[in-house]
Give the backbone structure.
Amino acid sequence: MTLTATADPGSAFVSLNFQPSNTLQLTLNANDNAFVTFNSIANDNFASPFPMVPSVSTGSSYIYKRLYNFGATKEAGEPNHASNVGGSSFWYSWTAPFTGAVNIGTGSSVNLHFSDFNTLLAVYTGNAVNALTLMAVNDDFTMPSAPTNVRNLLSSVTFQAIVGTTYKIAVDGFNAGSAAETGTIDLTIIQPGNDSFAARLPLTGSNITLTDNNTGAYVTDLGEPTHAGNAGGKSLWWSWTAPANGTVNINTTGSDFNTLLDVYTGTAVNALTVVASNDDAPASVTSAVSFMATAGTTYQIAVDGFNGATGNITLNISQQPPLAVTAVVSRKTHGAAGTQDMPLPNRLLPVTGNIDVEPRVINAGGPGHRIVFQFNRAVSTPGTVAVTNATGMSIGAATTVALGNEVTVTLTNIPDRQRARVTLANINGEGLNASASVGFLVGDINNSRVVDLADVSGVKARSGQLTDASNFKFDLNASGAINSTDISTVKARVNSTPL
């Protein structure tokens, strides 16, 4: 089969092997198909560049286009791009949507589109092909993610663009002395608007996930600190105002390159105070920090690339709700948590009216009494604990353990007929203090605030039973079963009342 194509003015025929031709002979077997591509080369001349109109979102702009420069020519007065004679140039125009660094390349690791020949790239300002001002130029740029045949032959430039300025972009083929190379041009333009500290993007909310790309990041600001102890050089900036007090976690999990992460306070790039900093999170080259945020404080967040690495950034911000006590329970020294709990209503201070007395601890050196503070989320450190009586004098002893959303306070040597105030301070390092008041009157099974014959009868009725949640008050010696010792203890305290 012979296919003959006649191109209209301003167009050229592109054959199946991507070489300019008017006539192509094909040998087709049964069920074979032939596909023909016609390529417009209207942007062969400076006067009619292809308009690159970016999609613009908060903080960035992006545009990508694939064209073919087969049949393209070099016009009179056109400069040699990247100091090479070239000869098959295409022209594009791009107007900066905002001021900031921009990256223009004939290949991009961001979208994995790569031109398939040795390109020349130059960016200009000006209105005449013979009177241009060069802004940026490149012949060969190494792109490790590109195909091996062009990995070191593609072109990339980064420069500072000015909002509203129209830039003229020339892409040509390298000419080794015979003719300019031609093929598929994949042109990508990326502009991150938050490249500078002054243009950092404001963020609000307790839980934020956003994506960005620092390929177009230009250079560090004058006076910008070194992030996470590495030179970097491709930083992007955000500002986040904490909506509440509490722990905040910020990380770059999901980013596809080795990141640096720093959080600062301050309003000038050369006068910042480090709040938190990280290069590599555990078992990852992404970064993660955690710190106590103060409501209303604005934190400046920088994400950079290790040794200038670039790629897709995922930034995650999560602030936990303020730590709060949800309940206080009394727990046996034996048995499983929950099944051996007795809720303690009205134990959190300030106490109104009489508090319930606790009937379990037998003597001053008894097996220990556990008061459990429960919270709205997990805690890792219990803070400090103090136990005082009604007059503020320290009594007994206490140990604390934080596990899950609980802090367990184990009391020992608390006298009988005594009210104890248990106070936790700076719980989980978040500045939260919580106090509960516990009254001790061993043997007051019916909670009448006096040990009477009804208490004795109650314990006798359960003699021999193994303890469970319903027998919480009756196992006075915490032995795991209600026995004669428990009965004797109540008898010995008949007519006792709390102090």
User: Anything to note?
Assistant: The chain has four domains: 2-40, 42-192, 197-319, 323-499. The CA atoms of residues 378 and 404 lie 5 Å apart. The radius of gyration is 38 Å. The domain at 42-192 is CATH 2.60.120.380 (Jelly Rolls).
